[in-house]
Amino acid sequence: MASDAAVASPDEVVADVGALPDIARREAGGWLVPAAAALVAAALPLVVSPYAQDLVVRIAIYAIFALSLELLVGATGLVSLGHAAFLGLGAYATVLGSGDSGGSIALLLPLAIAAAAAYAVVVGALSLRTRGVYFIMVTLAFAQMAYFVVHDTKAGGGSDGIFLYVKPTLAIAGKTLVDLGERMTLYYSVLVALVATYAFIAMLLRSRFGHALAGIRVNEQRMRAAGFSTTPYKLAAFVVAGALAGLAGFLLAAKDGAVNPELLSWHESGAVLLMLIFGGIGSLRGAVLGAVAFTLLKEVFQSEALLGPLAQHWQLTLGLTIIAFVAALPRGLIGLGTRLRGLARARPASTTAGTPT
Amino acid sequence: MSAVLAEASGPHARPASSPLLEAIGLGRRFRGLAAVDQVSLDLSVGEIHAVIGTNGAGKSTLVNMLSGELAPSAGSVRFDGDDVTRWSQPRRARAGIGRSYQRTTIFGEFSVLENCRLAAQANAPHAWRVWEPASRDLRGVRTAQRALAAAGLDGDTARTAATLSHGAKRQLEIAMCLATEPRALLLDEPLAGMGAEETGRMLDLLVGLKAGHAILLVEHDMDAVFRVADRITVMVNGQVIASDVPERIRNDRAVQLAYLGDGH
Fold first, then answer.
1. Domain limits for position B79
2. Which residues of chain A make contact with B60, given a CB cutoff of 8 A?
3. What angle do CA B199, B202, B208 make, to 5 degrees?
4. Could you tell me which residues are beta bridge partners of residue B160?
5. How far apart are alpha carbons A105 and A132 in whole angstroms?
6. Closest CA to A235 of A23, A22, A80, A26
7. Which of B152, B181, B210 corresponds to the end of one domain?
8. Can you give the pLDDT of all 357 residues of chain A as single tens digits?
9. Closest-approach residue (CA) in chain B for A222
10. Whole-angstrom Cα distance, residue A120 to residue A112?
11. I need a labelling partner for A196 at 20 to 30 A (CA). Which of A146, B5, B48, B177 fits?
């Protein structure tokens, strides 16, 4: 019945494989490009305006957020539409944990990560019983619950949110070493956090744990048949992803000096998912690229200086642009290189075919 | 049934050891319809026990109940002296019940070696050492290499699994199963879609695996089954109608009528 498959020509089989996100290739991505990008980002404050530096900080925070979701969506195959809850809880924990005179990073950073991770344990334990579209809906429901808790309680400050008057600092023996209230300190702290997050997830993905996640993404049933109790693996990925989103939330609170319920809204959850799709699911570089492109495009489309009254409808212009990009590049921006190489290869071939013989 | 088996003698005599895996009165109903009804059979190390039957006879349902993928509505499963009826599939797999699938289920994006190394990892200690690259898991790599050698697939193990030929993919499926170091092998149509040459190679492989494994072979290819099976159980409509050595199955009137057809 499947004997046709046995006689498939080798060329056909190889061509088919070109379309797969090869795990070996993903690992062998090399460090050159990410390291170069980090160095460029580190040198940027020398040449760009404070406004642009601010933009880089926002992009880097969203890149951490997108990377954390990539661990779920791209690595494990779990599409969550409630990831903003963890970002928001990290941010709220930071602000609520700071007194009027600010707080220590040594306390607030672990607090933000722990708050997000703790909620991820609860959400993960319950939502991972479901699959596919049900998983999407359950994660969304839990995020909406968190949203209404901060929106409708006194402690959460209601729809206006809360201000963080004094940014987190790190002091040893009365000497302040790190003050996130200073622009440059914040800039480099966020950059270090992004590099660390990227390296951490890359390390996870090439470990046996990461390979098990990839196996679960491709065929969970086969993994169970091989003896893997898959739920603990998925829960671990869910909690790590939540914790890293909490880290992004801490940095966002430190940057903005304020939090509001919109951080936990489904718009944010959708936006970070869009970043992944935009950049290319299944690649850490794609997640970062998606965060860069999304944030820059949003900045452009929101700019009245550039677009005049059209800037008020930035959601429409941004949405249409992303749809156009995804239609042209189904594998995201990261697939652009492969796509161009493919076109370059296809052209000589078609010329030959068109030549009369 | 056991009376019939006790009579068996000659080249296909039952091994003296007690059965490793036993199905006792297994049944499974889907919306009132009995897919498998009162099925008892056992597997011992050193023999290939084939289960044959028409489409819908309940063979796959039986395999799924033995592997733990499906809970039985009646009866029990015993493995190596333990009642494993309530054990989850991963737990049974770790205890030594391996299975392959009718549809190829290899991980296409991994290399041939990685497929087996990943399968070997479920049972491994320290699998949560996240700072250690998977490729440096020497125990897993060695287990994988052994499994690939046993399955006759130790050529280019760095090759991406999706690029293998159909026959080699089926071999890899068996190798992945072996990498979990099972004692019982449940093979669901390992010959599906194979050419004559590939079938021959696979059958040699199965006979070679008999020494250390109890093998359940679900297969449609009758020639192949009669070539390698030590015992054959015939299922029709979810029930066992005969279970015996191949020669007697071939001459069994009920089997001929129900399944093999008059031309046989």
1. 1-96+182-264
2. none
3. 145
4. B111
5. 38
6. A80
7. B181
8. 333 333 333 333 333 333 334 444 454 457 888 999 999 999 999 999 999 999 999 999 999 999 999 999 999 999 999 999 999 999 999 999 998 888 999 999 999 999 999 999 999 999 999 998 999 999 999 999 999 999 998 888 888 889 998 999 998 888 888 999 999 999 999 999 999 999 999 999 999 999 999 999 999 999 999 999 999 999 999 999 999 999 999 999 999 999 999 999 999 999 999 999 999 999 999 999 999 999 999 999 999 888 888 888 998 999 999 999 889 988 899 888 777 777 777 665 444 444 443
9. B105
10. 12
11. A146
Neighbouring residues of B14: CB distance < 8 A, sequence distance ≥ 6:
B5, B8, B44, B47, B231
Look up residue A207 and give its DSSP letter: B
C-alpha separations of A37 from A32, A34, A203 in Å: 9, 5, 19
CATH number of B90's domain: 3.40.50.300
Q: Do A209 and B130 touch (CB under 8 A)?
A: yes
Asked if residue A147 lies in contact with residue A88, where contact means CB atoms within 8 angstroms, the answer is yes
- With a CB cutoff of 8 Å and minimum separation 6, the contacts of A35 are none
Beta carbons of A207 and B165 less than 8 Å apart: no
Q: Quick check: A226 and B114 CB within 8 A? A: no
Do B202 and B247 belong together in one domain? yes
Domain extents in chain A: 24-263
Collapsing DSSP states into helix, strand and coil, what is residue A60? Answer: helix
Query: What's the pTM value of the predicted model, to 2 decimals?
Result: 0.88
Which residue in this structure is represented by tokens 């600010």? A102
Are B122 and B160 in the same domain?
yes
A51, two tokens: 């406004």
- Compare all CA atoms of chain B with the CA of A22 and give the residue at the minimum distance: B109
Q: Tokens 């970002």 belong to which residue?
A: A87
| B186 shares a domain with B172 | no
Residue B95 to chain A, least CA–CA distance (Å) = 9
Residue of B nearest to A26 (CA): B109
Query: Measured between alpha carbons, how far apart are the two ends of chain B, in Å?
Result: 24
CB-CB under 8 Å, B89 with A23: no
Degrees, nearest 5: CA angle A289-A294-A298:
150
Query: A275 in the Ramachandran plot: left (φ > 0), alpha (ψ -120 to 50) or beta?
Result: alpha
- Compute the distance between CA of residue A211 and CA of residue B146 in angstroms, rounded to an integer: 20
